[in-house]
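agent> step 3/5: call structure_predict on target 'alpha,alpha-trehalose-phosphate synthase (UDP-forming)' (Actinidia chinensis var. chinensis).
agent> reason: downstream docking stage needs a structural representation; sequence fetched in step 2, passing through unchanged.
tool.input:
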Amino acid sequence: MVSRSYSNLLELASGEAPAPSFGRMGRRIPRIMTVAGIMANLDDDDPESVCSDPSSVQRDRIIIVANQLPIRAQRKTENGKGWSFSWDENSLLLQLKDGLGDDETDVIYVGCLKEEIHQSEQDEVSQTLLDSYKCVPTFLPPDLFTRYYHGFCKQQLWPLFHYMLPLSPDLGGRFNRLLWQAYVSVNKIFADRIMEVINPEDDFVWVHDYHLMVLPTFLRKRFNRVKLGFFLHSPFPSSEIYKTLPIREELLRALLNSDLIGFHTFDYARHFLSCCSRMLGLSYQSKRGYIGLEYYGRTVSIKILPVGIHMGQLQSVLSLPETEEKVAELIKQFGEQDRIMLLGVDDMDIFKGISLKLLAMEQLLTQHPELQGKVVLVQIANPARGRGKDVKEVQAETYSIVKRINEAFGKPGYEPIVLIDEPLKFYERIAYYVVAECCLVTAVRDGMNLIPYEYIISRQGNERLDKVLGLGPSTPKKSMLVVSEFIGCSPSLSGAIRVNPWNIDAVADAMDCALVMDESEKQLRHEKHYRYVSTHHVGYWARSFLQDLERTCKDHVQRRSWGIGFGLSFRVVSLDPNFRKLAMEHIVSAFKRTKTRAILLDYDGTLMPQTSIDKTPSSKTIEILNSLCRDENNMVFIVSARSRDKLAEWFSLCENLGIAAEHGCFMRLKRDAKWETCVPVVDCSWKQIAEPVMKLYTETTDGSTIEDRETSLVWCYEDADPDFGSCQAKELLDHLESVLANEPVTVKSGQNIVEVKPQGVSKGLVAKRLLSTMQERDMTPNFVLCIGDDRSDEDMFEVITSSIDGPSIAPSAEVFACTVGRKPSKAKYYLDDAVEIVRLMQGLASVSDQTLHL
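tool.output (status=ok):
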């Protein structure tokens, strides 16, 4: 059921038409969705009531969608009725808005509140949040929220994305379709809320994190041209892990309904691209630094940029008197006793590696007895965001290890581990950062983790904190980080000591290294980190993402778009306005009107599906070709990369069929005609150089084969691992180009192949030869049909379309260049697959048969 629009909410509360305050958001909201699919147009209103500030017309508007709104809600104390709201200053979504700058962009938030709001209060709360905070709350029934968040998100998606497989019921939740249905339902509710405020032609929508991974499909289904970005804040697992998910393809296709997909690291992006390749057969390309996936004519861009921290907020907290007081207190607690503080700040969950860190501390104290009584590990354990058996187990293990270590190494007035498991205020946490000599982040798997960034900025401090710490104004700052290799921020912190958290000895050694490192080295590492963190802040991240989103969406309005597929298989086909499907009635009508016709057909992937193992033409295909060839008005040609012997064998029953073999190197006009060569016969001694190279790659690439043709060599990796095969193909291409540089051949890559063939040979040459032959015989065609499916066929399309105004094609001729599948092409028409092509050819053959019987 679609939620009521905000115009309705305001009317409910005031009994009037929408209040002027709604108009202050500018003419960026000229339309409001009241019922799914129906637009209420406000353009006839008094302009002053809609937009009182002319400058607001130029402002961009972004709808930021996340599981939780950046809002704190608290029940009012008087009478226990009503709610009071405030911004959650620690929310990344709010920091993102501050980073963009209030003067440049309007931001609307869509998400849930942490507190449950009774149904009778929801309308009033919605109006308050919209008017005062530009927030659109999504209200979910408690049982649905539990199944969606604590069920599917936290017990199924979150463990899997952190590399935990549900090998047994105790290790993460087994897939539960009821929880999946709840997840989809919640994403649909979010989509309905967005519909109420979106202006789809102008607004940008930015969806955050794994809670809303199918939301792009619902939005794209409503508005084919919606400008939509998605950022994943968690890791994305390798394809070996991800493919265990029963709804793996549904999630991938949903994400691909975004225009831009963002990841923290290249590893996460690489895993996603690998999944798209292995499960959907999609390949990606990098153009001028931008990575893109072609998906049904749309380019889905991939963004790799780790999020940053809010510098202004952190610096303001560092300047608070409370922070200074807490720093002074900690110095008295640790500094005056000459104790060195190591610091860990983690959520209490199974992936943060708290117990591994504690075991490394135990190892450090065992191996270096001189550090006993001098080094203290302060572990701040934030409450877990999820709940369940695993959280309780982590807590129990943590308490047990802390107790054991403190009993073994503690003494009066000294505890080697100080565990703080109660919530700390932000300034208190910052104070610990300021005092800590080293920060330890040993998560076994984590998305980004901004703790190291906060630590670096805190150690930079300010003048007032320097005085508290007893530092002079020119004293260089220093900091040390020991970070896990498995967290998102690790690649950007090149000065940190990176560790495998599972290797307890290595972590203990890293802690010792951090303690004994030269002061000058610590200062240089800190300086390097500070430069990066202070410039790559949350504002930089947000602006960079939105700039890329705008760039990706800039040609939306210039393309034809329509939706195909049902449910979560829905996707949008987006094509150039001049690129359209070849209609049967259109071509049959043209076929009937014309008298001299040229028909050029590719074979593999066109008349024969690429997936077929037996490539021999069917009796039906032979019958269709013979029907066309019996009509004296038709000149029909098969243009293939296959050898002339194979083609001659397959089409031996087609007396009048023309054949061009090996991309047109050999050609004959009919079965009894002699084979002609389109280019001078070349010496094939180059094969002695190329074949050993290809054999080397065949031996090292399981599933690859070599096809030795008369004038060419082809390395095929169709049955190899897609990622490895593609990688090997690139290497082979470079290798062959190098060793054959002085030979009269060209090396080209195609669909799952690398081919070496004589220079000057192309299917375009066949098209030219056929058209000129027909012209010489006074059979200048006024109907030309050319169909093919891969790059080699593009040469034919180019020749035919460029010949339209030339002498080889009759004036006002009907010309149809048609590719297979919706993809960028020089052809102006497309058909979806070989089945449609055979059906089309059957229709034309029927017309020829009727003509013969007249």
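agent> step 4/5: record observation. Residues 685-758 form a domain with the Hypothetical Protein Ta0175; Chain: A, domain 2 fold (CATH 3.90.1070.10).
agent> proceeding.
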